[in-house]
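During the no-cost extension, the postdoctoral fellow (Dr. R.K.) reprocessed legacy sequence entries with the updated structure-token encoder. One reprocessed record is reproduced below for audit purposes.
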Amino acid sequence: MHAREVISNAMGDLAAIHEPDVELVSIERPQCTGLEALAKALDQRRRALQLRVQLQADQDPAELLAAALAESSLPGQDELGEELRLLSGVLYELLGCRGVGLRLLTLRQPMCPRFHVDRIPCRLLVTWGGPATEYVPDRFLERPLLASKRLPLRPGGQVRRLQPNAISLLKGSLWASSETADGDVDRRPRRCQGVAHRSPTVPDHRLLLSMDPIWA
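Re-encoded structure tokens follow.
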């Protein structure tokens, strides 16, 4: 039986990531004009934005963003601050993590051009201002080919692409939690092969947000 993806427009469906047969949940949202404008403004700066920080639950990500930008007139900056608060809060509540490994990057070329599976439990991704992450659904994936340079597609399979501004949760190969009958989270290791994904092949600028839950 193949793992499946859940594509929705309801935030509550993010909880489907706890289902054993779900490897990806993507919540599609309307385009945010402010965040698209910010992505364009950041792309026009001479120096790329490369924000990498471990965020604790008592820290305000909007303050870290303001310090990293060191500017107060960029369009969409307030919207992005609110977005970081929202999404870090989602991870704390949904996964019970104590911190978040946050990366916010302006990119002009593929960061990870080959299909791969992350050796982490889970990752949240959002893209603005350009094409979003590509993935191969498990039912289309020829996993042994991930170790080669060949496209890991079964005959008739298709590469899919996440939507800009979508909130996407991707399981990695170290996913080890599932919800028990009484609602607790069981951390015992359970097999999960993880989502095969790569950077978009379209050469274009984009603003990429990546958040990894931290339990330790």
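The longest helix spans residues 77-95. The chain has one domain: 4-214. The remaining legacy entries will be reprocessed before the final report is submitted.
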